[in-house]
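To the structural biology subgroup,

Please find below the input and predicted structure for 2-dehydro-3-deoxyphosphogluconate aldolase / 4-hydroxy-2-oxoglutarate aldolase, which we are adding to the shared reference set this quarter. The sequence is reproduced verbatim from the submission form. If anyone notices a discrepancy with their own records, reply to this email rather than editing the shared folder directly, so we keep one authoritative version.
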Amino acid sequence: MTFFDDLFSCGVMAILRGMDPERTATLAERAWDLGIDAVEVPIETPGAEPSLRAAIEAGARRGRPVGAGTVVGVEQLRTATELGAAFTVAPGLDPELVRASELPHLPGVATPSEVQHARKLGLTWVKAFPATVLGTGWFAAIRGPFPGMRFTATGGMNAHTSSPPGRRWAPSGRRWRIPSSCPRCGASSSEGRESASE
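Predicted structure (tokenized):
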């Protein structure tokens, strides 16, 4: 089992973007309380780094991993590593970042060529982005030629734009209801709980 197989066992990732450090840490805690192990804090600007640090510190107290998102350069990769991120996420596939990363890396893909290149780089998990533009049919079509690849979906994903996560892909994003398929989420098949991301 890979790092991301374990991380996405619940089927949902909370992405905590654009919030101050205190709010970010609070929502990360709420996500973990609800059974969501995967928490990402995007660091598209240096101003977001304190929020990532706050979430990582909160995660360290509870033994939970926190990832750095929107990593598009080697300098951001270095910053994420220094802050203690457990993994990194990128909007696109950059072979330089994949090779340079000391952490598990989840790049974005949107075409079969990118999925094939990711596989050649040794990756088994990638991020379909932007997922709502690609559509659910993209996932059905891509499984045929790439049966060993796993996907998480980001970009406009919510409880209304996703099919049920009983799959080889995990939805990520905002305003999620916890899937009943997650044994640690505490939701029965007839109920759900609001996730921590807003």
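Summary notes: Strands lie at 13-15, 38-42, 67-69, 87-89, 105-106, 108-109, 125-128, 150-153, 169-173. The chain is about 35% helix and 15% strand.

Regards,
Lab coordination
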